[in-house]
Amino acid sequence: MAARMPCPSPALLLTRLLRSRVVRHHHPAAIRVKKNGLATGILTCAAGRRRGNVLSSTKFPPRTIRCCSIVSSPRCRSTEDVLVLGIETSCDDTGAAVVTTDGRILGEAIASQAELLGQWGGVVPKLASEEHRKFIDKVVADALQNAGVQESDLSAVAVTIGPGLSLCLHVGVKKARNIAKAHRLPMVGVHHMEAHALVVRLIEKHVEFPFIVLLVSGGHNLLLLAQNVGQYVQLGTTVDDAIGEAYDKTARLLGLDMKKGGGPALEELAREGDPKAIKFSVPMRGPRYLNCNFSYAGLKNQVRMAIEARNIDGDEVPLSVATAEDRQIRADIAASFQRVAVQHLEDKCRRAVEWARRLAPSVTSLVVSGGVASNHTVRSRLGALASELDLQLVCPPPRLCTDNGVMVAWAGVEHLRLGMFEEPPDQDEPDDVRVDLRPRWQLGEIYEEGQSEARSLKRMGHHQSLTAQVRNRSSEAEGRPASQ
Ligand code: KG4
Ligand code: ZN
């Protein structure tokens, strides 16, 4: 085993840091080396404009100081070689990507489990984690190869630590820690839903905080006010199922080909149907529901009854072998379901905009992300709502709406820029070390008026929310007591 180099003193570290090529290129201002060995600071250009943040650690051997990570703002040119690897394994997609801090996607790779999903009708945690284990090395190697870089060229590793399936999260986190340990890289533990929310800023650089965000995926339906990186107000969530789950269930009952994914298959069939053919009722309307929460379980049930009443058996008769008449009925059900499912999103977004404006009158953007945001009807109907409410609708491109490694790498960049990262794992960390996983992890603090019966709020309460954690860490750094 290689002998560990002694840590340099803070003074020595500072000297080396100031001499390093990248820092010299700018005007380093206020670089501080803390007692715990972390160096943080701000870089400014000649005109005094903020150009980026510095981060490094005395735990790196002195010779690696030239590789200290300089994480800069998107416009900073001198940081082309600052590379962040992102790893995603929270559910059924194994994703990895290498992204630069100025927002270029150098390489990415993904292994989807759609086939398995089609076979089992849903995600089976044990099987999903086995698939992640089978593909993780290849996916990371492919992402690096596509990027034309090696592990040793990386500056940091970001990995999803929650929410998600623990067996699956574990695979990604172990892989990330091994790479970070081998190359002494800082790490960022990413909140999966924050990654969905932030990825839009990689593509649409004009999206600034605060913005309203609707996250629609297989497991979550969230309405948030994004105030900053790591700072969210939760305006609403689902009290039972998420919209993606309702799409998947409906697709299965209608006998669609799940290999394409339930949502995309249903969207395709709905194009052939009449959205007004069946009168499903829109969930949570009326004076009892003056909140921003969602419920899709009732709609799912209405759809199931409509399907049964028409003697459709998707298991026995898949769509591919249905008669023309049967196909038309299924298309009408799909279109009618989609109309009401999206209407529910519109209703709640309308109220969320009102609430968000009370907290942040300057909001100008409604961001919609997560797997279901790749749906064309969702995009066009929410686009119309946004323009009626004088907001701009911003969605990531469809391939970045569904789970992927790019969004995790980018969330890592956003955290690194603000100095929010962890030390590399200890060199002597045992392979079976217990890692920090957060299968149930709330993203934001709940808006007072949004406090409700939401079951998922209780379910998600096992860990302190990301927002509370970030706030408490910054209080501690400033010597103020952390709040609960
Ligand atoms: O964000 P995501 O990839 O994974 C989770 O974090 O859950 O979202 C997956 C969900 C699935 O339920 C899938 O059916 C749905 O997003 N989805 C769609 C579409 N594409 C994916 N739903 C409706 N229309 C689509 N085009
Ligand atoms: Zn997701």
Please provide a written account of the structure.
By secondary structure, the protein is α/β, with parallel strands linked by helices. It has a domain at 83-204 and 403-444 and 466-477: Nucleotidyltransferase, domain 5. The chain has helices spanning 10-19, 21-25, 114-120, 125-147, 166-183, 192-198, 200-203, 243-253, 262-270, 297-309, 324-359, 376-388, 398-401, 405-417, 455-459, 466-477; strands at 27-33, 38-44, 50-57, 70-72, 83-88, 93-100, 105-112, 156-162, 187-191, 211-216, 221-228, 231-236, 365-369, 392-394, 445-446. The strands form three sheets. Strands 14-13-10-11-12-15 form a six-stranded mixed beta sheet, sandwiched between helices. The protein has a five-stranded mixed beta sheet with strand order 7-6-5-8-9, sandwiched between helices. The protein is globular and about 65 Å long. The relative contact order is 0.14. It binds 5'-O-[(R)-(carboxyoxy)(hydroxy)phosphoryl]adenosine (KG4) and zinc ion. Zinc ion (ZN) binds at residues 192, 196, 217, 370, 403.
